[in-house]
From TrEMBL, chains A, B:
Compartments (UniProt record): Cytoplasm
Domain Aspartate/glutamate/uridylate kinase: 7-246
Pathway(s) annotated for this protein in UniProt: Amino-acid biosynthesis; L-arginine biosynthesis; N(2)-acetyl-L-ornithine from L-glutamate: step 2/4
Site residues (Transition state stabilizer), renumbered to this chain: 11, 228
Function: Catalyzes the ATP-dependent phosphorylation of N-acetyl-L-glutamate.
Name of this protein: Acetylglutamate kinase
Organism: Olivibacter ginsenosidimutans
EC numbers for this chain: 2.7.2.8
Principal localisation: cytoplasm
Catalytic reaction equation(s): N-acetyl-L-glutamate + ATP = N-acetyl-L-glutamyl 5-phosphate + ADP
Length: 261, 261
């Protein structure tokens, strides 16, 4: 079997999207990243601020946003409009031929409205095993375009849906893993997975499944880091080559951050 | 020379975009339009309403919007976000494989910030003879995708710009006229160019340059219709096969409206 072409899927959070200088730095280093690549972004506090300015109350349950119709309009405007188009324009200025997409565009990501159990999350979209239109995304990559996904998807029946950006990134990575050697890169506000949460320099360079089990048993990896790493190992199990957790400013540094494999 | 493939470029105004039922009807008939096609849309009063809700004063000079930075944010959110993604999702629901684009996406439309003469229009983008990335748009059409353009473009240096949707539609038509037999279709609130403005059924079926001169001399075509028709004849002169002015509800009816050739 011949070597598969490399593909980097990079996820950035709202904290980068909403800071002009951080976003300028990030788009510059993303533009210079070699090979095929996809960007996935949230929109973060801009959406909450806009909702606030419009008198729409932010509804949260268990740390997750409840997407009522008014909130859906706001996140569609902010994520798929303002944030997405600004990022694309900045990438273009850095000679990166970016194309901004929601999941509705080219039917790239089709989700289902989250079923109502105890909580009605409203217009929240959940992934299914066939959500990612692999062939379509591949055809865009083969035009030497760099897709930039906002966290808005659709259900194929005319309804836009708000979808978690981390989930989109990992679903894209898994969906494209049979066509490319995928590196999934989560940029966040820390330099990686830390062995001492109080020490920013205590980055654990590599974690495999055995080491993960040990780190959990020792209590070094705990709380919010557990679902992140569980998702990372799930992606690895489904064919993604490696998952990297690093600071956005370290995107260009191949040796920075924590590599999960 | 072999016959060129047909391409329809359809422009709809904000009055359709903002009315749920009109938009449902329109997206259904656009989806059923045969052959390759491109949609260009405005966003109209939704942008003004949002600006109003946010306390941003709409600035107009000579009937044209002054795009200050706050207004640019609003139109980017409404045109490229809310309106564009809703239209794309509705088209997808009608089995039309639409892809929503601003001019920044894939560098499809690169404009220049309007030079300040007596009036500073702010972040308004003007077309140049090389604005349309013909090859890129053609490559998307050849993936059997149907581009849906919002009226947001970019200058290639990271700046988004607000651009007139009519102008985008005619620039696309002219830019693609060497590759396709282009019909440029302007949908508006009348059934076509009327010989009697008080009679909705007095549609002039066909207008060529000779007839246009006569109709102007007779005062039958006057006021706001003159720039529209001047632009139409300009497009014809630059290779567009025909320009059709019709009601959005008549899109499916090949014989409806006024054909300029």
């Amino acid at each position: 079997m011949k070597d598969m072409e490399k593909l980097s899927i990079v996820k950035i959070g709202g904290n980068i999207v909403e800071q002009e200088e951080a976003l300028n730095r990030f788009t510059k280093s993303f533009a210079h990243l070699e090979g095929r690549k996809i960007l996935v972004h949230g929109g973060g506090k801009i959406a909450s601020k806009l909702a606030g300015d419009l008198g729409i109350e932010a509804k949260m349950v268990n740390g997750r946003r409840i997407t009522d119709l008014e909130t859906l309009k706001v996140v569609t405007m902010v994520y798929a409009g303002l944030a997405n188009k600004n990022i694309v324009a900045l990438l273009q200025a850095n000679h990166c031929d970016a194309i901004g997409l929601s999941g509705a565009d080219g039917d790239t990501i089709r989700t289902v409205k989250r079923p109502v159990k105890t909580i009605d999350y409203g217009f929240a979209g959940d992934m299914t095993p066939t959500s990612i239109h692999t062939k379509r995304i591949q055809s865009l990559l083969e035009l030497n375009l760099f897709p930039v996904f906002s966290a808005i998807t659709h259900n194929g029946e005319g309804q836009l849906l708000n979808t978690n950006a981390d989930t989109i990134a990992s679903a894209l990575a898994i969906g494209l893993a049979s066509s490319y050697a995928v590196s999934l890169i989560y940029c966040f506000e820390k330099k990686g997975v830390l062995s001492d949460i109080a020490d920013d320099h205590s980055v654990i360079t590599e974690i495999d499944q055995t080491k993960y089990t040990a780190l959990r048993e020792q209590g070094i990896i705990a709380d919010g880091m557990i679902p992140k790493l569980d998702n990372a190992f799930d992606a690895i199990a489904q064919g993604v080559k490696k998952v990297i957790i690093k600071h956005a400013d370290d995107l260009a540094d191949e040796h920075a951050g924590t590599t999960i494999f």
